[in-house]
């Protein structure tokens, strides 16, 4: 490597992107482009960084496959942080394979972390877990180790394994401290907040209280019958019945769960499930049909019995019934849940993440924007959505280690 | 052209707090290497680090019998090895793209990395006296017994090669094992080269083809 590239790379490594830029600003050879790209990314100009890294990847010669792969990994990381989920995941996988083949374990691990983070973000938990299992974290230097443990914690949180999540966050904190990067330590700290912030509300016999993630986990293992309005399922420790695609049935189940052990008058059920103000005979007939369907769906977990005035839920084996509701009742809770990460999202990226049509997401965003709950930047294809900033923890860029070949 | 596999005689390092080797030279007793913000010297017999000088050290290193020369960013510094003081500074010919450095017969020879060139310069002024073209990137340069050798390193491929100082033609090549790079080059004046190993943080001793092969040279031409 030449002298100025070495000097610039050293400046970058010590957290001085301006010092790095000063040394290579006027150079357009491949290593200089790569360093400029990384420096611009660290300075927050992700658009310019992407262009520079793309040019760098192109400029490296055919024998410099490793340097090119590192550029592609950096590009992928920038895409991930900008929530550009349409970025080709295949290119990242290929770059990771190249780094593995050349023995660059550290950057290969970094690439794999990015792949897993992307899967986690778009909700492919099984795939993310499978991929993570192929990585031996003891081989990683502190920076990659912290990123790895954050991903492990992210999966554990979504799987409601709070003990595993807490342990991973503790390891992430140690690694971040060893890496001595304050922004990384802040990232770990903000991730830890998930465990100390109410994740849901418990409704039991008409009374409500907030629940931490840990308490949710305990509740789900307790054997009580849980009408889970966070995921639109009914579950006990032994089984889950999903009503996610049956909104009317879920609304009925929830109404029954909230009133338990009492019953719910027919008129109330009609109002909750059909939004019917004045019930007539046809409504009553429809309610009977829907109740029959609900009884069939829930048969392994509970019975639905008619009472004098309405209906009630009778769980099998005499368990209790509770309702688990989102911490804040929200029409577009899923959209808000994604935006809650504080990043700016394109509506198409949200659509990929939610598995919904772009039009549906667009409509939800417009309604949320009208209510002042989200805001947008830019126009047309460049438009990005975010929640009004509460506490600005950026997702920091770790970027592949020294881009240079030596 | 003669071609053979490089024979690695010994590996030194990695050394504490020196994760990269950027340049290598030999003062007759100790091997000096550049590690970014420091010049370090070790004893090639024991392998022990004997001293270091805090000075910017980003690429090639050379020794003229009295002083060390060290490339830093776009300049070449002349350093007193006793005090560590920078005595003089001249501009490097590649303007920062400089890589290897060697001293021979009163002049400095500077590799220009991606430019694939070696410049001969005036050590007082930095003026370019002449330029030799190579067909590979230049990572280290050394002169020994009238032979000009330089290192190359592209991706997984690296070698040490002797070139004709007039034409740049490759005369002899020692191929390094795959994944083993040469980031700095110096001869001990005898039968071994010291090769900087870049990011591996190692300095490797590589056998220099003996004078036996040199005397064989002409007979092969006959």
UniProtKB/TrEMBL annotation, chain A:
Please name the source species.
Rhizobium jaguaris
Highest taxon in the source lineage: Bacteria
Q: What is this protein called?
A: Helix-turn-helix domain-containing protein
The alphabetized UniProt keywords are: Plasmid
Automatic annotation (TrEMBL), chain B:
Q: Does the keyword Transferase apply?
A: yes
Q: Name one Pfam family in it.
A: PQQ_2
- An example Gene Ontology molecular-function term: transferase activity
Keywords on this record?
Plasmid, Transferase
Q: Which residues form the Pyrrolo-quinoline quinone repeat domain?
A: 73-211
Instruction: List compositional bias (Basic residues) regions by residue number.
Output: 201-214
Q: Which InterPro entries match?
A: PQQ_rpt_dom, Quino_amine_DH_bsu, WD40/YVTN_repeat-like_dom_sf
Show the segment(s) annotated as Disordered.
Answer: 198-222
Protein's name in the database: Glutamine cyclotransferase
Biological source species: Rhizobium jaguaris
């Amino acid at each position: 490597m030449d002298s100025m590239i070495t000097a610039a790379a050293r400046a970058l490594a010590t957290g001085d992107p301006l010092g790095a830029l000063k040394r290579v600003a006027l150079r357009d050879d491949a290593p200089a482009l790569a360093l400029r790209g990384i420096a611009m990314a660290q300075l927050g100009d992700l658009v310019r960084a992407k262009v520079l890294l793309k040019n760098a990847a192109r400029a490296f010669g055919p024998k410099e496959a490793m340097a090119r792969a590192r550029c592609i990994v950096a590009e992928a990381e920038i895409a991930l942080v900008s929530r550009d989920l349409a970025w080709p995941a295949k290119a990242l996988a290929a770059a990771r394979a190249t780094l593995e083949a050349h023995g660059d374990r550290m950057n290969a691990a970094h690439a794999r972390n990015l792949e897993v983070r992307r899967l986690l973000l778009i909700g492919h938990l099984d795939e993310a877990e499978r991929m993570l299992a192929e990585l031996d974290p003891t081989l990683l230097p502190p920076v990659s180790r912290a990123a790895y443990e954050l991903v492990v914690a992210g999966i554990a949180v979504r799987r409601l394994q709070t003990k595993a999540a807490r342990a991973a966050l503790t390891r992430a904190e140690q690694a971040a401290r060893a890496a001595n990067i304050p922004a990384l330590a802040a990232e770990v700290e903000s991730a830890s907040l998930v465990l100390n912030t109410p994740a849901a509300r418990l409704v039991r016999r008409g009374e409500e209280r907030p629940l931490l993630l840990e308490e949710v986990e305990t509740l789900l293992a307790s054997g009580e019958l849980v009408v889970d309005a966070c995921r639109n399922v009914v579950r006990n420790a032994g089984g889950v019945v999903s009503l996610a695609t049956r909104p009317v049935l879920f609304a009925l189940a929830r109404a029954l769960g909230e009133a338990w052990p009492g019953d719910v008058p027919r008129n109330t059920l009609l109002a909750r499930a059909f939004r019917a103000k004045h019930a007539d005979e046809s409504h009553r007939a429809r309610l009977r049909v829907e109740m029959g369907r609900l009884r069939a769906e829930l048969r392994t977990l509970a019975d639905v019995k008619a009472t004098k005035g309405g209906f009630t839920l009778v769980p099998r084996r005499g368990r209790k019934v509770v309702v688990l509701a989102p911490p804040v009742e929200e029409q577009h809770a899923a959209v808000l849940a994604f935006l809650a990460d504080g990043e700016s999202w394109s509506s198409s990226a949200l659509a990929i993440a939610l598995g919904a049509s772009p039009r549906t997401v667009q409509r939800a965003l417009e309604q949320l924007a009208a209510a002042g709950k989200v805001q947008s930047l830019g126009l047309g294809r460049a438009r990005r959505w975010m929640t009004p900033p509460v506490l600005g923890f950026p997702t920091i860029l770790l970027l592949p280690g020294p881009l240079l070949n030596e | 052209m003669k071609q053979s596999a490089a024979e690695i005689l010994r590996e030194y390092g990695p050394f504490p707090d020196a994760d990269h080797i950027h340049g290598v030279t030999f003062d007759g007793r100790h091997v000096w290497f550049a590690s970014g913000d420091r010049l370090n010297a070790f004893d090639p017999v024991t392998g022990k680090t004997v001293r270091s000088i805090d000075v910017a050290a980003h690429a090639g290193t050379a020794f003229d019998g009295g002083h060390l020369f060290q490339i830093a960013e776009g300049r070449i510094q002349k350093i007193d090895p006793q005090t560590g003081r920078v005595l003089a500074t001249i501009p490097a010919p590649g303007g920062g793209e400089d890589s290897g450095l060697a001293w021979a017969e009163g002049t400095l020879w500077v590799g220009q990395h991606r430019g694939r060139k070696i410049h001969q310069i005036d050590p007082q002024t930095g003026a370019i006296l002449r330029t030799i073209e190579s067909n590979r990137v230049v990572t280290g340069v050394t002169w020994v017994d009238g032979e000009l050798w330089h290192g190359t390193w592209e991706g997984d491929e690296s070698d040490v090669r002797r070139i004709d100082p007039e034409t740049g033609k490759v005369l002899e090549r020692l191929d390094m094992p795959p994944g083993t790079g040469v980031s700095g080059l110096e001869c001990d004046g005898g039968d071994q080269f010291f090769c900087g190993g870049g990011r591996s943080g190692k300095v490797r001793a590589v056998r220099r083809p003996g004078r036996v092969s040199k005397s064989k040279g002409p007979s092969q031409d006959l």
